[in-house]
Design goal:
Layout lengths: L1 H10 L4 E10 L5 E7 L5 E2 L1 E4 L6 H13 L1 E12 L5 E3 L5 E16 L8 E8 L12 H10 L7
Parallel strand pairs: 1-7
Antiparallel strand pairs: 1-4, 2-3, 2-8, 5-7, 6-7
Length: 155
């Protein structure tokens, strides 16, 4: 996240519009891969901010590999999310209005490797048994995905 870090050196913690992508990895048993984030200890999706010159699909592929060790063979666009619901204040004070492009990946390869700088744990969850502490900016994305599958989350 070099671009955002460089920008933060100039503007501090004030709100910015942050464009990025995330990936809902679904395994052959129809479970979703979630990561326990190091910064807020919430479960979320692999993803992150766009660097200059990248496409959104490149962001999704890069972040998926960096955070999980997995490589997407295919990505399907789920939706693009923005607005008040995607405002987030990080534990260290940075404020963002996220614009998130979400992709679904059912075809991937590689071995799961945890990026210990950003991720405490990676785990596949049944779609109807998700943890209660979902990462706030990603909860609406996961809920949208579940609603499209007609699955009610108990969390």
């Amino acid at each position: 996240m070099g671009y955002i870090m460089d920008l933060r050196k100039v503007i501090g913690t004030q709100p910015i519009i942050m464009v990025g992508a995330c990936v809902l990895v679904i395994d052959s048993r129809s479970r979703i891969l979630l990561q326990l984030r190091q910064d807020n200890h919430c479960w979320g999706l692999a993803g992150g901010a766009m660097e200059p010159g990248e496409t959104l699909e490149q962001v999704a592929r890069r972040e998926l590999f960096e955070e999980t060790g997995l490589m997407a063979n295919g990505l399907d666009l789920l939706n693009i999310y923005s607005g008040e619901e995607f405002y987030y204040k990080y534990p260290h004070g940075d404020e963002v209005y996220n614009v998130i492009t979400a992709y679904v990946c059912r075809d991937y390869h590689g071995e799961i490797i945890v990026d210990e700088h950003e991720v405490a744990e990676l785990k596949f969850y049944e779609l109807d048994e998700l943890p209660a502490n979902l990462n706030p900016p990603e909860r609406p994305i996961i809920e949208d995905f579940l609603s499209k599958l007609n699955i009610v989350n108990k969390a």
